[in-house]
Amino acid sequence: MNAELAGRTRVEMVVATIHQRISGRSLTPGARLPSVRGLAASMKLSTSTVVDAYERLVAEGAILARPGSGFYVANQAAPFALAEAGPKLDRAVDPFWISRQSLEAGESDLKPGCGWLPPAWLPGEAMRRGLRTLSRADGPALADYGQPLGLPPLRQLISRRMGERGIEASPDQIMLAESGTQAIDLLCRFLLEPGDTVLVDDPCYFNFHALLRAHRAKIVGVPYTPSGPDIELFAQVVAQERPRLYITNSAIHNPTGAVLSPVTAHRLLKLADQFDLTIIEDDIFADFEYTPAPRLAAFDGLERVIHIGSFSKTLSASARCGFVVAKPEWIDGLTDLKIATSFGGGRLTAELVLNVLSDGSYRKHMETLRNRLSRAMGEVSARLKGLGITPWLEPPAGMFLWCRLPDGVDAADVARAALERKIVLAPGNAFSLSQSATNFMRFNVSQTLDARVFEVLGDVLGRQRR
Fold first, then answer.
1. Please, are residues 349 and 357 in contact by the beta-carbon 8 Å criterion?
2. How far apart are CA 101 and CA 465, in angstroms?
3. Element of type H or E holding 325
4. What angle separates helix 362-385 from helix 451-465, to the nearest 10 degrees?
5. Any idea where the HTH gntR-type domain is (predicted)?
6. What are the beta bridge partners of residue 281?
7. What residues form DSSP beta bridges with 391?
């Protein structure tokens, strides 16, 4: 037996054999494969094994099945050009730049600029237990559409969790979404008309810009401070622009790590009431807090504030599950919109998230994660300072450091130079509507512990200063 085939199942052995023949050109595009019986006899295998292997090859697109005729090698795609796999260095540093570079990065690339935790920091074993439990579930859980509002037991659990943060919301005021991003997209569809004005923080999460532009909104930025938006400027802008929405993070702000103060929160809500402003409170980092920060939704009682959350940052980015919390009449309209755009909810993911949140290990996981992030925050902050990169503030929790680069250094230039060396960074102007963060950069401390990051940063900064 070929050494490369040793240790494989019989089906895998047949699949590998056919792949070898195709790559070795003994089977060329359009060539007919051996019959099932013929290959089974030559390899001393059962016909069912060969059938299973051929079906797998058809599913891969490697071969084609022609009823009554047999199996044929599919036309092969053009050879993969290694040059095409390189980073797109000439792409503009816009709201999509960081997302594209982070999502398309190779396994060996480093991603200090991305917005998620390394897989090893997430509760992989709890997810596996949940998947095993779900594999034994009844038919509807595995195959049926979910209810429009989403899985009732998960909404009940979220309702209890909201109560711990001072937000009173019944399960019927909670609608599950595929992610926090989908939740904001649905809210924009529900609340905005093209040309409506929306306020965002400057800086803010760059995908807010992308989403709002997709909805053809007029975007206006308000400078952000360590205690929230600059409230005097916020009042001026609201009076002048009469925006329809304000989108913000109140707990752990992205990218700055700042926390909204109670005084600023109360003044924001007074302005919202005075100028008929709706606030979307994006709270996807809530579980990273040691002590709950003020929530606009708690102060407001969900009159003008819509609260959204997600489990992608703490459980898995692969199991997408978010939620919207709002007053009943808005939830009713949002539910109709959800049916129109995605029909039933993602029941399978909701069942998995419920299972993991209910097995008793999640609180312990988050306690360990918070402590691990705190240690990483201290280590990364110290090492960045050694390079002349200064944190804007020392966040009380979370994964982000918003940092000022040395004078005269352009963060976009640093990011492009680092990308050539397989390191994805997050330059400041991707977060800034006013493009006033030229020499700022956001670092995800969980992704910035590798010594290569600081080696490359030191080298690139040294060249920029010359």
1. no
2. 25
3. strand 322-325
4. 30
5. 8-76
6. 248, 307
7. 403
Q: How does 155-190 read in b/e, with b if 16+ C-beta sit within 10 Å? A: bebbbeebeebebebebebbbbbbbbbbbbbbbbeb
Length of the chain, in residues = 466
Residue the block writes with tokens 């943060």: 165
Antiparallel, parallel or unpaired: β 322-325 and 245-248: unpaired
Question: How confident is residue 82, by pLDDT bands cut at 50, 70 and 90?
Answer: very low
Residues 6+ apart with CB under 8 A from 125: none
pLDDT surpassing 60 at residue 78? no
Largest Cα separation within the chain, whole Å, is 83
Burial class (CB in 10 A: 0-12, 13-18, 19+), 230: middle
> What span, in angstroms and rounded, lies between the C-alpha atoms of 302 and 331?
11
Q: What tokens appear for 160 in the block?
A: 């209890």
The tens digit of pLDDT for each residue in 363-417 reads 999 999 999 999 999 999 999 999 999 999 999 999 999 999 999 999 999 999 9
The region that residue 7 occupies, defined by phi over 0 for left and psi between -120 and 50 for alpha, beta otherwise, is left
- The reported pLDDT for the residue numbered 366 is 96
Q: Which residue has the tokens 């929790």?
A: 397
Listed residue (448, 314, 430) closest to 391, CA to CA: 448
32: DSSP letter: B
Q: What pLDDT is attached to residue 7?
A: 52
Location of structure tokens 């999460």 = 205
- Alpha helices of 46-87 — where are they, by DSSP H? 47-60
Residues 188, 192, 196, 199, CA torsion sign:
negative
Cα angle vertex 265, ends 264, 270, to 5°?
95
Of 305, 309, 279, 280, whose CA–CA distance to 292 is shortest?
309
Burial class (CB in 10 A: 0-12, 13-18, 19+), 239: exposed
Is the Cβ–Cβ distance between 209 and 219 less than 8 Å? yes
The rounded distance, in Å, linking the Cα atoms of 18 and 35 is 13
The first and second tokens of residue 16, run together, are 């590998």
Rounded Cα distance between 313 and 439, Å, is 27
Identify the weakest region by mean pLDDT among 49-53, 90-94, 228-232. Answer: 90-94
CA distance linking residue 237 with residue 40, whole number of Å: 75
Strands in 154-217 per DSSP E: 174-177, 197-202
